């Protein structure tokens, strides 16, 4: 099976993204481009956790609702959430109302605060896990995602399994998994080459 399909403008793109305009925009402007901003990294960790058992299309469609419900995924604000916030979120039809995932986000914000104190930033910690060589194209997990998952779990994080962490690494540009022949692959590669690694 080809890993590319023509997009709405006729240019080839990763086959998974051509189903909707939102997917194409996300693929072309975000997916695989390196990120060093702690808030964006934390948001993606949270949303990948919410995606567990669901499709990214579902989460992407609700992303603005998630941002509103979790105060833009500001780590310190989410870390201060309490039981009343959990109940508020469980009543919010604009997000995925899964108690375990909601509570994991709050817990993970507190664990992220500890990481920032230890490493200087979440970005510095995350980018220490950039693989020296890219994993096989189309893989669902990698040695790096397994190691990152294991370390985060050791630190008390939840909903950070190896598959979830691999999707995070792909999305945040720690690996360039745009398919060979994808029109955006070279752009993501150039962005990675120019990117200044934190820490």
Automatic annotation (TrEMBL):
Source organism, top-level taxon: Bacteria
A UniProt-annotated Pfam family: Adenine_glyco
Coiled coil, from the record: none
Protein name: DNA-3-methyladenine glycosylase I
Protein source organism: Paracraurococcus ruber
